[in-house]
Recover the amino acids of this structure.
């Protein structure tokens, strides 16, 4: 995608630079080693630290926060960062908890970021369900994001957020053309819930991308935490077996690890 740079910092955290805009997704900057509770008997240990610190990244114009209630999407140092961010775009439940600069969007709602020295950037909320059917009262609300700006030639940049494959997510390719997708993967599982999964499996990711047909597929949020049941190898195998050369569109962004536990 022309004039776009994506830096993968670790987990779901990326820095997206578009025509002068600096947008950070799901900020997670705590060091590795700690175990975090996610509620209802679930939790996870952070195994790898971020590739860059918040100080190394510097100021950002906005944070896109899929949800605030799991530390693998917003941890303590991430909360410190968003306190000084001009705007945090998230789901309404998270906005209510965070207050301050947080703006809550429901599925398919949009907002426009404006500044005098750069093009307007439209942010559209896309649907997510962070687990199996009927799990939302337990797992909470999550959204994804589609980014549009003047001069785009091939479609939106879509950040899926933490979701499984379900009918509302299948609506995305019906409503918009996607050029680049940042896929939240990992097939999250917990011992207490057995084989149930709470984020895209590699097979679901292939099925979704076969519907979306993006030019570029960037995997994120598949590493660095103990609750992921599928890593890079499983994802590569699934896409290598995908039809119509879909695997050739898969691009892995480098991660320079600062610390590992």
């Amino acid at each position: 995608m022309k004039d776009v740079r994506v830096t993968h910092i670790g987990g779901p955290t990326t820095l997206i630079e578009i025509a002068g805009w600096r947008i950070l997704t799901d900020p997670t900057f705590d060091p590795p080693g700690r175990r975090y509770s996610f509620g209802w008997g679930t939790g996870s240990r952070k195994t790898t630290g971020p590739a860059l610190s918040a100080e190394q990244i510097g100021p950002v114009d906005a944070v896109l926060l899929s949800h605030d209630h799991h530390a693998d999407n917003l941890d303590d140092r991430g909360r410190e960062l968003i306190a000084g961010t001009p705007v945090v775009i998230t789901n309404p439940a998270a906005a209510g908890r965070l207050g301050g600069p947080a703006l809550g969007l429901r599925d398919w709602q949009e907002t426009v970021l404006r500044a005098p020295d750069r093009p307007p950037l439209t942010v559209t909320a896309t649907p997510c369900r962070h687990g199996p059917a009927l799990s939302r009262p337990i797992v909470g609300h999550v959204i994804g994001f589609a980014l549009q700006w003047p001069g785009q030639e091939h479609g939106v940049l879509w950040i899926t957020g933490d979701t499984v494959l379900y009918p509302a997510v299948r609506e995305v390719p019906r409503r918009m053309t996607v050029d680049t997708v940042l896929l939240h993967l990992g097939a999250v599982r917990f011992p207490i819930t057995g084989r149930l999964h709470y984020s895209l499996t590699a097979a679901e990711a292939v099925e979704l991308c076969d519907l979306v047909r993006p030019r570029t597929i960037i995997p994120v949020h598949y590493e660095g935490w103990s609750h992921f049941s599928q890593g890079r190898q499983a994802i590569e195998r699934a896409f290598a077996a995908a039809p119509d050369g879909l695997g050739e569109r898969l691009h892995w962004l480098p991660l320079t690890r600062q610390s590992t536990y």
Remarks:
- Confidence is low (pLDDT under 50) at residues 257-261.
- The chain has eight helices and 14 strands.
